[in-house]
Amino acid sequence: MVSIERKYGWSTSFMIMAFVTSLLLCTFVSGYSLYKYKRPAGSPVSRIIKVLVASVKNIKISTTGSLNHDVTEQLLPREQTHNKFKFLNKALMDQNLGDAQVKETKTFLGLLPIFVTTIMMSCSLAQSLTFLVQQGNLMNRKIFSFTIATQSLGIVPIIISLIFIITFEQFKKMNKKKGTTTNHKIYQPLFRMGIGLAMVSISMLVASIMEYKRLEAFKKGNTLSVFWLLFQYILLGLSDILTVEGMIEFFYSEAPESMKSICTALSWCSGSMGMFVSSVLVTTSNSISGRFGMEWFGGKDLNHSRLDLFYALLCVINIFNFLLFVYFA
What does the domain layout of the chain look like in residue ranges? Predict the structure, then answer.
């Protein structure tokens, strides 16, 4: 598609993509009668809102006094008492709410801190779709007489993800056949997420160093090969699959049966919010750096900008984000 776009223009590539997408949509709809699905039993979002509203309404009501002591003991058994989000227990004062609703609300809120720490990974991954492409366009993209389209390098993280998934699953099968326990840390989703978030920091450090080297080469009249960007793509691909795959598994395993869909969807929310955070960081850093004499992205192109400093900023933010993840995990 990139080659078609470069040779025949945007309109032709858009027409082809529209046709292929329509064909795939028709294929999906044609199998509707064969799909197995479970009808939704109420909205989990509405149940969460009801619990939060009831907790706020009863926030001033004491559950330790003689008036409410019997109600609390009856509706909140000893084994169901949780140390976290105790204020939500006041929702049990409402006769229309049960302990199951309060418990699933606590579980959902408990997953949010982990969810928040994954947004910066998505923000860093967004750079592979924007700045890395612009960097590649300013580098030597030729292999003999063939010119590589920089957008094609985006296939590298996908290939890395496929290789990792296949290798990881085969490794698990081999251990099961040998009778080896699968309780090792590497099989724990939070551990894999931690490795992924740590690798994001490393990838941004490498990106900052590589961009600095590219700018130095430009000042000397030289042009680096686009293949130097492969280090960043490989690290981002590994961090992406480790974090996202671990996040989906963790949210799905921890979520109550009635909330598995919404908790799994948090991984997609992380990706979309990361894109927005990336835009905010670019705008904010450019504005603040402009007050000190030079905007990081004030040049006519990346050869006259300071993308290396922006990558360094992302590295520092990701380090603090990783420490925050370790604290919550």
Answer: 44-109, 118-328
Closest CA to 125 of 318, 326, 324: 318
Tokens representing 299 are 């040049």
pLDDT digits (tens, 9 = 90+) for 1-18: 777 777 788 788 889 999
What's the CATH superfamily of 118-328? MFS general substrate transporter like domains (1.20.1250.20)
Distance CA 151, CA 134 (A): 9
Model confidence, pTM: 0.81
DSSP secondary structure of 214-256: HHHHHHTT---BGGGGHHHHHHHHHHHHHHHHHHHHHHHHHS-
Span 216-226, pLDDT tens digits: 999 998 889 88
Most confident of 58-72, 170-184, 216-230: 216-230
